[in-house]
Amino acid sequence: MNARTKASGRKHPVAALALGVLAGIGGFLDTGGVITAVSAGARFQFALLWTVVLGLVGFSVYAEMSGRVAISSAQPTYEVIRTRLGPRLGAVPLIANVVVHVLVLAVDLVGMALALQLLTGIGYRVWVPVVAVALALALWFFNFSRVDTGAALAGLTMLVMIPASVALSPNWGRVAAAVVHPNISSSYSIPGYLFATASLLGSFMTPYQFDFYSSGAIEEGWTGKDLGRNRIVAVVGTLFGAVMTMAVMTAGAKALYPYSQPVDSILAAARPAQVAFGEIGFVVFVVGVFSVSVAASVELCLSGGYGVAQYYGWDWGKSAPARGAPAFNLVFLAMIALAMIIDLTGVDPIQFTVITMAFGSAALPFTFGPLLLLANDSQFMGRLRNTLAVNVVASIVLGVLVLTTLATIPLLVITGGNF
Amino acid sequence: MDDDGGRRGLSMGQIIDHAILDRDGHRAGRVDDLQFELEPGRSEGDPPRLVLRAIVSGPVPRPMPSLLGGIARACYRLIGVQDPRPAVVDWSHVKAIDAFVHLDVERVAAGLRRVDEAVLRYVGKLPGAGRE
Asked: Of the candidates B19, B120, B130, which has its C-beta nearest A83's C-beta?
C-alpha cells in the first residue's frame, strides 16, 4: 500500500480534525442536504427538525464504529466487509453504494451548475459539463487533500445560514420543541411527510461518508491511540453539520412556509438567505452551495474509487499518483462522466435531488447492517468491539432505516417524489 | 508445502477472499478461488489426498453461467483487459497468512496486476498521471 507509507508523515492533529469536520460538512450539507432541508422547512415548517437529531445520533454512532473497525483491523470498512462477506454478499453494499454515489454526484454537479447559473445568468445545462470537467481536472492534477481542504474551507461560507436563521427571528421555543418532538399536524399529507423524512435522513447520513471516513483514517495512519480523536472527530463533525442543517430548515420555514412557497428552484432555496441579508446573503449562500458541493463531490469520487478498488484488491489512495493507482482513478473519472450524462438528460434538478436523497437513505442499511455485524465480531475486534449501549442505539437507528428502506418505493409512487 | 501438517486447522475462510500483498508489500488483488488436486494415497489402499495447489486471483476467477461470464469478460475488455482471465499462483509462493495473504513473488510478474496494468496503458499516458 504505497498510500499508507506516504501518508505516515501526516499525523497532524489538525489534519485529522479537518478530516472529520470535512466529512461532517460534506455529508450533512451538500446540495442535496440544502435543497432537502429548505424544502422541508418550506413545506412542513419546523415539524421535521427532529429528523436532524436522529440523523446526528445515527451518523455519529456509525461513523465512530466505522473508524473503530478501521483502527482495530488496520483496514478500511469496505475492505473488511469484502473479506468477511465474500464476493456475492460483499457486492450488495458495493453496488448499492456506487449507484447512490453516482446519483448524489449528479446532484452535486447540478448544485454547482445551478450556483453558477445564479451568479452568471447562463443556464445550468451549459455549466454541467464545465463543472464536471473542472472536477475531473482538479482531482487529476491536484493532490486530493488540497482539493478537500480548499473546498472545506470555502464551504464554511454556508455558516451564513446560522446568522440568517437568527435574523429571521423564529419562535425559538417552538423550534426547540420541534427538535425533540415529532409533530404531524393534520394539515400535512402523511405520505409527503414520511417521504420528506426519508429524504432528510438520506441527506444526513450518506453512505459515502463511511468509505471516505475509514479509508481516510487508514491513509492518515490512525492507530489505537487515535480512538479518542476518532470519537471527537465523529461528534464534532456531525454536530457542526447538524447545527447547519437546523439553521437551513429553520430559515426555510421562516422565509417560505408562511407564503406556501414550494422550493421548486435553487432560487427559492436561496430565498431565506436573501430575505435575511439581501443581495450579500444571496451571494454568500450561493457560494456556500457551490463549495459544499465541491467538497461532497470530492468525497463521492474518492469513496467510489475506494469501494471498487478495495473490493477487487487494487491499489487505492488519494495520496498516490494516478500511475500508482490507475484503476482507482479510472473509477472516479467514469463516475463523473456518468453523473454528467444523468444531469444532461434533462431531469428536473430539484425533484431529482429529493428522490436521490430518499434512495440514499434506502441504501443505508446495506452498509450499516454489515458494519454493525463486524463491530460485534469479537474474534476480529477484540476489546474494541461494540458496547451494549452502542449496540442498542445502533440497532434502533438501523431499525428506523430498514423501515425507511421498505417504505421508500411505495412512498415515491404515492407522492410522485414531491413533499 | 504439499504437506499440510504444518497448517493444520487453517480454514478456507482464512485464505479465500483475503487481499493479497506481493513480496514488496504492494496490493495484488484478492484470493478469489483455490485450486486443489487429488493425489493417490501415500501407500497402497490409502484414500486419495486433497492437495492445495494454487491460489486463483483476477478477472472472472470462477466458472460462471455463460451469459454472466460473457458480460463480465466484455466489461473487462471495455476497460482494456484484452485477455480477461485470472492469474494462478502456485501455493509454494505463499509466505504467510494473516489479515492478508503474503506472496514471495512480484505482482506484475505473477500476473496479479492485470487490471491496473491494462488501465495504466492508457491512463498512464494522460498528462499529469505521474503527479505526486
From this structure: B19
